[in-house]
Amino acid sequence: MRHGDPDDPLLRQVLPVVEEDRIVPGFELDAVGDGAARGATGLIHKYDGRALLIATGSCAVHCRYCFRRHFPYAEETAAANRWQSSLDYLRAEPTISEVLLSGGDPLSLATGKLAELTDALATLPQIRRLRLHTRLPVVLPERVDAPLLEWLSHLPWPVVVVAHANHPNEIDTAVAGAFAKLRGEGVTLLNQAVLLRGVNDDPDTLAALSERLLETGVLPYYLHQLDHVAGTAHFEVDDARALALLANLQARLPGYLVPKLVREVAGDTGKRPLA
Ligand SMILES: *Cc1c(COP(=O)(O)O)cnc(C)c1O
Ligand code: SF4
């Protein structure tokens, strides 16, 4: 962050502002329908073949646009002794071949806790892939330490890490180093970003983000339209502008550097592409 600049694109993501208090119709508490898709305590089974485990409610940052801002983490984390019901659910659902560790941020758990969880998952024969959705390599690259790498190197499945950077300035040399270490363990690295007004809603920034990701060994995966969560309306970019931004990226970047522009729609069978 640039010191003293209230419009800094990194600061804007975490700075509480008075606009958040505005009540905007359509911006709700459970905007993505997680409540309805709850399969067990701490487990969200919305899409075929994949289940999301809320490994912990803790995060290293509090992004103001977070779609889980109002999620009842205290009751819904699968952490510690509460993993059992999620594991029972998975055991009874042989169609689930991929487990996503999410949160909160799964890497805010101690590595020993992660190992307990993956040891338990390893007893489920249907699991073929493990995915981690984490912002920690970006906001706390020191978390990618030797014990974490050691844990990754022993997992019995291909591992996909979906990082979360919204702006190229987030990827400094320390972050690039964390990405390189993850790749060194054979991890497939992807990035998801959220389209945010005043942060990354211009084509030069988005193109620079894709370029910087590739330089550091990461491919862009999703560019999310904002979930309509109460208190986040000031970040909204309307669909027409979002599509124009996407067209601009498509015109100037190779296809593999253009993220899929998607929105989460309650009840859908996957993320819904805008184009
Ligand atoms: C986004 C999401 C997934 C994964 O979707 P992909 O399109 O496979 O990345 C799985 N479960 C839930 C609940 C999700 O929100
Ligand atoms: S890192 Fe992800 S889960 Fe954590 S506050 Fe930010 S958007 Fe929410």
Structure overview:
This protein is α/β, with parallel strands linked by helices. It has a single domain, classed as TIM Barrel. Helix content is 30%, strand content 17%. It has a ten-stranded mixed sheet with strand order 1-2-3-4-5-6-7-8-9-10. Helix 10 links the parallel strand 8 and strand 9. It is globular, with a radius of gyration of 18 Å. The mean pLDDT is 93. The site of pyridoxal-5'-phosphate has 8 residues, from strand 2 and strand 3.
Give a quick precis of the structure:
The chain has 275 residues and is of the alpha/beta class.
For the largest beta sheet, what order do the strands appear in spatially? 1-2-3-4-5-6-7-8-9-10
| Share in β-strands | 15-25%
Can you give the helix content as a percent range? Answer: 25-40%
Query: If you compute it from the alpha carbons, what radius of gyration comes out, rounded to the nearest whole angstrom?
Result: 18 Å
